[in-house]
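USER:
Try writing one entry.

ASSISTANT:
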Amino acid sequence: MLRLFLLAAGGAAGTLARYGVSVWADRAARGVFPAGTMAVNLIGCFLIGALWAIFERSLVSPGQRLFLLTGFLGGFTTFSTFGLETFSLLREGQYWAAAASAAANNLIGLGLVMAGFFLANLFMGRAAA
């Protein structure tokens, strides 16, 4: 039960932080670029890298890891997990796997956003924009 509480609390805090950073960055960019999403993704990537390095060198409880990495950063952005997993593959010398993962996540992910958009419009009887 404690694990679920840690996940939920971390996720809620991460979601609120994501909203605050995203709104701030979008206002600062004045709508020229999706700066909020980019800011959240980049900050999340930095944080997961820094936390991972700290966790490798110090004794951190499984609960703290769960709260910060899965809960908070999961609510903040899952892009940081993608970055960490790709970096881990690179550290292990699995360059092709890292490249394939990066390409697949980005290209297939974008393709699926487009497919979902067009299929939903098709089923709703609207022409896709």
Summary: The helical segments are 2-29, 35-57, 62-76, 79-91, 95-123.
